[in-house]
Task: structure prediction
Amino acid sequence: LTLELFSTAAEAESCVGNMGAMERYCREVLMQEKATIYDKFRVLDIKLVHIAMNEKYEEAVTLSLEILEQLGCKFPKGKIFRLHEMMVGMMQTKEKSKILGEQIKEIPDNPKPKKRMYRLRKVMLAMLQIKGGGKFNEVDNVHMINDRMFMVMTIIRRFSLYCYLSGKNDLFVLSHLKGLKMSLKGGFTSVLPLNYATIGMIFIIIFKDYKTGAKLANHGLMLSEKYDCKSSHTGTANVGYMFVLSWIKPFQTLLRPLAEAYETGMLAGDTEGAMWCICTYLWFGMESGRPLELLEGDCSTYSKQMKEFQRGKILAFTQVLWQTIHNLMGKSPNTTLLQGGVINNIDEFCTNHKDDLVVLSYVKLCQSYLCAVFREDVLGADIAIEKGNSFKTINPANPTLLWDMFARGLCMFAMARTSKKERKKNYQKHAKKILKKFEHFVVKKGNPNCLHYKALFDAEHAALQKDRTDEASKSYHLALTLSARGGYVQDSAIINERYGEFLLHGLGNNEEATFYLQESVKLYSEWGALRKSNILRKKYRHLLCKCESICVCEMEQGLLIK
Result:
């Protein structure tokens, strides 16, 4: 009873963010030599989360393996054995995914226990037959597992995340396949939906199979909804929406589910999952063109929660985005340098996160984007060449890759148009590679979030050749139509600016160029990027002032006629 009380106290202190008291309670429980792994499990689980909160992912992976081994769950130690088990499990999952989806759809919403058990048994029998899988166990409880299996599944859920964050890809894949195998042997658990969503992500990373990945993610989300799996819903939603469904659905359609998953996680006490969901929500909001003023307010609100719950890694992502917004709005004295307002010193920030390649990759991404927006094309092209495809390598299956490619491509095409012959070919080569990748995502994979990116780069590519000006104009118009239809205000502003400059410098059509540049200024202002709109207004004041005076004269004439 005393151990239970101390464990409950440790959990309570952890939930309210009182880590000092939590550590004292945990220490008391772990000092009890006669206590079994089952007695210490709740405290070990809390300790594991605390280690991960301090970004010691290698240590968290080691502790997870130790706990799992004590619970009788072992992982292959050799790389060859891990790879074999991983590939067999993946292929068998793909074969069974269609059958499983049909069975899940047959489960009624919030079914009665007996009917639910019957339906669930059909689902389990349809699941993948991983080597060593056992016979389905039928009992009267929906969870159908003993305490040991529940503990194993709980640790596997955390273990998989820490493997991903520490770069242990083989263990990351095996942890989710093992979760499915455990469910096949012992029955449904709340971790099962997360396993499906994550394996869907793995199909995208390894096989580039977006269709199967989306099926598996939808299976996980359906199971989570039908069985009200609050403890794992935030993880399932974040993986499913961010890493899988974002490749086939517009970002705007995913904002509401992510916000709802955040609320569910906070109510269920899963602060880590909730913070990841809201972080994804903020980044998708930026990429989909939400007003910067609203995003800035959200970043301010949720950053306080991240600090309160000591989610340092998630806070770092949010701070990078928040600082980018400050630069665009003019709340920072800098344009392309990510400091002033949120991040006091970017060099110090990068030093503090020197071991976190993911955070550093986001810093480079935002620098590239700011260079593209503020027309620091030389710096932006140098950053793009220096980092190459490193964002994709560091962040597999992350759809923000499209934003990174867009920023790099803008700078490359700009430099290809203005550079001398010696360097022009090099910039053209890099720009064409990015264009081909967008063609792959649009034509072969049907990604709806980069249709206007491809159209813009088709226009930029055609604009490099004097005999393709008509083709360039058509592609610019297509890019404008697609960006407006998708609600991408910020991208519409960029496209209008690029098209206006093409008309002005490439074709010498001042009248039409003025219209598109004026539209760009208007859209930047609507988005909230006031610094950019002011810079553009000053740069082309000789054109825009004439346009404004003409508009005033027309209005006065109209009033006189009336």
Residues 110-144, 549-562 have pLDDT under 50 and may be disordered. The radius of gyration is 27 Å. The first helix runs from residue 2 to 15.
